[in-house]
Specification:
The chain is α/β, with parallel strands linked by helices. The protein is 31% helix and 25% strand.
Length: 360
């Protein structure tokens, strides 16, 4: 295991589409939403422990969730949890981690991963990451992992891959990125055979990603370059706050990956889902003969199919006459919604707050 390998776990999301279980106080990544006994961030952490030194794992999260990260990942030291004062999407998150890593190891190779993905085949995943690290070694290369699509999915971004002579098997040049398409376009992308789901997992050297920031997102790169001398000093918090106030909100895909010409994709298959919606969770869950999934609770179903149900542990329920529905109860909230309408869940939570006050 090389001391030059670092892992950055991005854990700043809110996961509003998993309301009412996921809230601003306890976002999706901190929940045992799969009923495995471990939260999604705990599963992510365990997945990367064999791949890099424990001291080289960094978690970037919102300032309000540092205590929650340390509670769920007690093997981490407090300085390994990087807290963002404001939500600015993935590019500033990665730039912040780069700044911290640069002070420690300018020769680092970095794996960047979301904190809330499902990986079914962990052994293949580790082999895949190892191959990716070898691919970027000594090259000015930005690597992303692409998943062969199994359906015309509108919730994922897509990567168009083209063959290039001299690349190892499974690696291709990236031609273009396409953000979440509508259903008709998703069908076209699926049928073309050239497009793959964007997993949001990246591998690169610190030098390559820094160069890409300076070329394609210079204003963000400059802000975090100026922050480096102040990290760990008495002025750390004030300087970090000012950096984030001045930094625009932009994703790494929009800001860097879609503009760079040294982006490659590794086509992988290790049982991946980003678990971004109740429907994607349903697709990954164990279902009965009517394609119903009960994630928690004691539930009897009659004349019900293609639905997902989550009740608090120890709670019982009876459901009759539903087709293609989401039924989720938390300690203080209830959601009953057709799966086809789940994109409205964010609006539902906003409407609840506006109507009744409080926080989601």
């Amino acid at each position: 295991m090389s001391n030059n390998i670092y892992c950055v776990i991005m854990a700043g999301g809110v996961g509003r589409r998993f309301w009412p279980l996921s809230t601003t106080h306890t976002p999706k990544q901190f929940l045992d939403i799969l009923g495995t006994g471990k939260s999604l961030i705990q599963q992510t952490f365990d997945r990367f422990k064999p791949l890099c030194p424990l001291s080289n794992i960094l978690v970037v999260t919102n300032k309000d969730h540092k205590a929650l990260v340390l509670e769920q990942l007690p093997e981490l030291q407090a300085e390994q949890v990087l807290t963002e004062p404001l939500r600015r999407s993935t590019a500033p998150c990665i730039a912040y981690a780069n700044a911290v890593i640069k002070r420690k190891n300018p020769n680092a190779k970095i794996i960047v991963t979301p904190s809330d993905h499902l990986i079914l085949d962990e052994a293949t995943f580790r082999t895949t990451i190892g191959n990716g690290l070898s691919f970027v070694d000594g090259k000015d290369t930005l690597l992303t992992l692409g998943i062969k699509p199994s359906r015309p999915e509108t919730a994922y971004g897509y990567i168009q891959a083209v063959e290039q002579e001299g690349l190892p098997p499974g690696f291709n040049k990236v031609k273009t990125f396409i953000e979440k398409p509508d259903l008709e376009m998703a069908r076209v992308l699926l049928e073309s055979g050239e497009f793959f789901w964007n997993s949001g997992i990246f591998i690169w050297s610190l030098k390559s990603i820094e160069a890409a920031f300076h070329k394609h997102l210079r204003e963000v790169a400059t802000l975090f370059d100026d922050l480096i001398p102040l990290l760990g000093t008495p002025n750390h918090d004030k300087a970090l706050q000012e950096t984030y106030v001045d930094c625009r909100k932009i994703s790494i895909d929009y800001g860097v990956m879609e503009k760079a010409n040294n982006v490659f994709v590794q086509i992988v298959d290790f049982g991946w889902s980003d678990l971004g919606t109740w429907t994607s969770l349903h697709d990954s869950a164990e279902c009965n003969s009517e394609n119903n999934a009960v994630l928690s609770g004691q539930v009897l179903m009659y004349d019900t199919e293609d639905s997902i149900v989550h009740l608090p542990k120890g709670k019982s329920g009876v459901i009759q006459g539903l087709k293609n529905y989401i039924v989720v109860q938390s300690d203080d909230s209830l959601l009953i919604c057709p799966k086809d309408n789940e994109k409205q869940i964010r609006q539902f939570t906003a409407d609840l707050t506006a109507e009744f006050g409080g926080d989601d």
